[in-house]
Every structure is written in C-alpha cells, then in structure tokens.
Specification:
Length: about 280
C-alpha cells in the first residue's frame, strides 16, 4: 500500500525518533561541536589549532581585547544566548603567535583584588605581588559584529512553495531552511599614541535545517532552540576568525602612515580656515 507522500515522510521521521528515544551518549571532543576557534595554546605553543588560522614567525607585541559592552551589537548577543567574544579572540591571538595577550577584562578585578590583599598584609610575605609586576598592553584589539542575519535569503520559502500541493509536512521541512550570516570588524589600536594601526572585516555563512521543529511541534522546536543558537554562535566565531586572519595579513605588510609636519601637530594636509 502506497502512503501519501507526507504521511510516509512523517512515518519515517517518527520511527527514527522512537528508535533513538531514551538513548544518550557523551562524545567528548566531538568535531561536530567545534567552532573555527579550536584547540589550545600555552605560551608560543599551540595544539589542535585551526589549520586555516594565520600565524606569525615572530611576536609583534602585547595586546588586550577590549569590547564596547554598551554598544548595540554587544547587547544583541543576548538574543543568541552568547557571551563575550573576548575568549575566542584571546585563543586565536595566542595560537597565531602574533601577539602576547594581556588581561584587561573582568579577570583583572581578581588581579587587583590579590594586590589589595597583599597591601593589607593578608598574603604571605613570599607572594611577590609588589608593584611593577604587570605587563603593559602595546595594542588594543576592538571587535564588533556589524551584521548578523538569522534568516538571510528566501530559499526556504521558495522551496516550500514547490511542496505546498503535497502536504504540510514537506512544506514545513523546506520552509525551515535558514542561511545564517555574520560580518565582523576588528580594529587594532596603538595604546601609546591612540592611532589605529589596522582594521579588517570578516564574514561567514552557515546553512541550518530546522525541519524537526515544524514536523513535531513545539516540544521538538524547543529542543532545537539550543542548536539554533549554537549554529548562530558558530557562524559568528567563523566571522571573527576570518577578521583575525585579515588583521594578521594586514599587519605583516604594515607600513606607518606619514603626515607632513608630524602626527597631531595641527599641520596636516586638511586645514580649516583661520580667523
């Protein structure tokens, strides 16, 4: 007996769920869970780094990651249940060997707390938390997400239209094809002069199939919410990786900009009328 197309598909998917119901396994280090920022770093040594990550033969200086937490792009990260981009960029920077990363984020509160304890006399005398221990940051790397789209393009709707005459299940599967895109921007600032040394854009695109939520209703949809957020997170990490690679390529060819009369002396080439 030949079942209608939509009922046959529903039967296959339902049987698949029943087969796997109650089964679970933990796949530690799963490749499917990794982003483009993967592996580890310790000093100049790294393991498991993305093969596509740009690297430097010699380190260019110390660098702090500084996020504008009051900006609109940072606030929208909450919509995707994503945290700070700093850990991702710190890993990429250390693995690249282009920069030595220094802490200027929230962990610095703990660093200062230890110094307060030392000054109060609570720490052991040999703790060596005296002045002059911290390393200065030569540069600041400032990230931003300039564009993020959770449903770019109308492919899902177009495919769904082809199946509308064959049942709601098939149309629902097709209409849940989403293209997730992200574009990011990194700027590298010289902390002593305040001069922007380099800027680089990066982008990434990912296709997500949300079929199960449409077929089995809100319960499956809720379980796919975490996956959807993870997919969006992965595409943002990929865009940041692309931006970082572009920054590295730019600074490898760095040449200082020269202004006749000197930087910031009021003798630049674009003058305003004087009184």
């Amino acid at each position: 007996m030949n079942l209608p197309f939509n009922k046959k598909l529903l039967g296959i998917l339902a049987a698949s769920l029943l087969t796997t119901a109650g089964c679970s396994s933990m796949d530690m280090g799963s490749e499917k869970a990794k982003t483009t920022a993967t592996g580890s770093a310790a000093g100049s040594h790294s393991e498991g780094a993305n093969a596509g990550l740009e690297r430097c033969d010699k380190t260019l200086g110390t660098m702090a990651i500084v996020e504008d937490t009051d900006s609109a792009w940072y606030r929208t990260l909450n919509e995707y249940k994503l945290g700070s981009t700093a850990p991702v960029l710190k890993l990429l920077a250390q693995q690249s060997n282009c920069f030595v990363v220094v802490e200027r984020g929230k962990a610095m509160n703990n660093m200062m707390r230890e110094r307060e304890l030392a000054q109060s006399g609570e720490l052991r005398k040999q703790s060596n938390f005296g002045k002059g221990q911290m390393v200065s940051a030569d540069y600041s790397l400032n990230p931003s997400i300039t564009f993020s789209n959770t449903n770019a393009g109308g492919l899902g709707g177009a495919i769904g239209g082809l199946f509308r005459g064959r049942g709601g299940v098939a149309a629902g599967v097709a209409a849940n094809v989403n293209f997730k895109e992200a574009s990011t921007l990194l700027t590298l600032i010289d902390n002593r002069s305040g001069v922007q040394l380099a800027a680089a854009e990066g982008s990434a695109r990912n296709t997500d199939f949300g079929a199960m939520g449409s077929v089995f209703g809100s319960r499956a949809g809720a379980s796919l919410g975490g996956y959807s957020n993870t997919a969006e997170g992965k595409v943002i990490v990929a865009a940041l990786t692309d931006s970082f690679n572009n920054i590295v390529r730019a600074v490898r060819q760095y040449k200082a900009q020269n202004v006749k009369g000197g930087l910031g002396t009021g003798k630049g080439g674009l003058q305003v009328q004087q009184d």
